[in-house]
């Protein structure tokens, strides 16, 4: 009797690219680029490109390590079952090695080509997401996304420090804005995919504390976002373009949060307010940071004081 072995087909480059979570990475790259463009001072275009590239590679490496660690969980959730590892298109060890290579390479390149402070913050962001959030927080506490939200808040700070070489109030505020934005953004998603998390035992807020508590906390964090979003203008770090945009956009964020907070389970169209808030929250961050850059350009050109 001849023994047969089943060989996994060779992974396509698109499978490796999928490991980096490109849709999530687009927001990471954009906020990192905005932090770089909004920072005072100037940076050589090549150095700026390398800095943004390193942010992208570091984010991709962290996302890859996240999928390597959570492959078994991903296989049990409808939303993630078609990812390369649970779908059987990629070996876990290959994903792990790819993630480590991206992570280490991005930090070294950032340090050698840009500056070592931005490289250190990039390294911290990778460890925060891949280890603190993925390994420690996510499977243990419903506050996982609250504390773990810091992982996605680093890119604008890294971009800013790539130009200035120092951490000041403005990059800290940009970090804080994304940190506070993350819970209502992610919990809106968690409300309409909570069955997936429940099935694999991930203690997301709607699963552990229930929908009512989650909805109230979405509104609470949305309200806390208001002063943080306005803070760069209030301290004089930006002009009226950013200030006006932040006021209007964040007021809309609160308005989109209200029907989510006030809605009873099973009332009206299934999860329509939640999906609307989730969609708007992504647009919110893109437009808010675009306004930050527009404000800097306008100041540099002397169009506003």
UniProtKB/TrEMBL annotation:
UniProt KW keywords: Cell membrane, Heme biosynthesis, Membrane, Transferase, Transmembrane, Transmembrane helix
Transmembrane segments: 24-43, 49-69, 98-114, 120-137, 144-163, 169-193, 218-235, 241-262, 277-294
Compartment list: Cell membrane
Enzyme Commission number(s) of this protein: 2.5.1.141
Record-linked InterPro entries: Protohaem_IX_farnesylTrfase, UbiA_prenyltransferase, UbiA_prenylTrfase_CS, UbiA_sf
Membrane-related topology note: Multi-pass membrane protein
Calcium found in the keyword field: no
Catalytic activity, reaction form: heme b + (2E,6E)-farnesyl diphosphate + H2O = Fe(II)-heme o + diphosphate
Principal location: membrane
Pfam families reported for this sequence: UbiA
Organism domain of life: Bacteria
NCBIfam families the UniProt entry points to: cyoE_ctaB, PRK04375.1-2
Additional detail: Carbon 2 of the heme B porphyrin ring is defined according to the Fischer nomenclature.
HAMAP family on file: CyoE_CtaB (MF_00154)
Family: Belongs to the UbiA prenyltransferase family. Protoheme IX farnesyltransferase subfamily.
Purpose of the protein: Converts heme B (protoheme IX) to heme O by substitution of the vinyl group on carbon 2 of heme B porphyrin ring with a hydroxyethyl farnesyl side group.
Name of the protein: Protoheme IX farnesyltransferase
Gene for this chain: ctaB
């Amino acid at each position: 009797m001849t023994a047969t072995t089943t060989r996994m087909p060779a992974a396509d480059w698109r499978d490796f690219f999928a490991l980096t979570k490109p849709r999530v990475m687009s927001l990471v790259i954009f906020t990192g680029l905005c932090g770089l463009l909004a920072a005072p001072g100037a940076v050589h275009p090549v150095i700026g490109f390398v800095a943004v590239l390193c942010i992208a590679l570091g984010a991709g490496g962290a996302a890859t390590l996240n999928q390597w660690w959570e492959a078994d969980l991903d296989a049990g959730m409808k939303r993630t079952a078609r990812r390369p590892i649970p779908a059987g298109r990629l070996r876990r060890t290959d994903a792990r090695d790819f993630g480590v290579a991206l992570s280490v390479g991005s930090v070294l390149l950032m340090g050698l080509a840009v500056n070592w402070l931005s490289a250190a913050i990039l390294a911290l962001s990778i460890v925060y997401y891949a280890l603190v959030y993925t390994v420690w927080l996510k499977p243990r506490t419903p506050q996982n996304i609250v504390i773990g939200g810091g992982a996605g808040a680093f890119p604008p700070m890294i971009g800013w420090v790539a130009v200035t070489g120092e951490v000041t109030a403005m990059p800290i505020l940009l970090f804080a804005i994304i940190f506070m934005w993350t819970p209502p953004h992610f919990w809106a998603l968690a409300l309409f995919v909570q069955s997936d998390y429940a099935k694999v035992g991930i203690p997301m807020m709607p699963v552990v504390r229930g929908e009512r508590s989650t909805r109230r906390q979405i509104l609470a964090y949305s309200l806390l976002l208001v002063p943080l979003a306005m803070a760069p203008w209030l301290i004089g770090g930006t002009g009226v373009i950013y200030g006006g945009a932040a006021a209007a956009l964040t007021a809309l964020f609160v308005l989109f949060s209200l029907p989510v907070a006030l809605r009873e389970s099973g009332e009206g169209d299934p999860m329509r307010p939640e999906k609307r808030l989730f969609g708007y929250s992504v647009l919110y961050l893109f437009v808010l940071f675009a306004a930050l850059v527009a404000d800097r350009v306008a100041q540099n050109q002397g169009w506003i004081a």
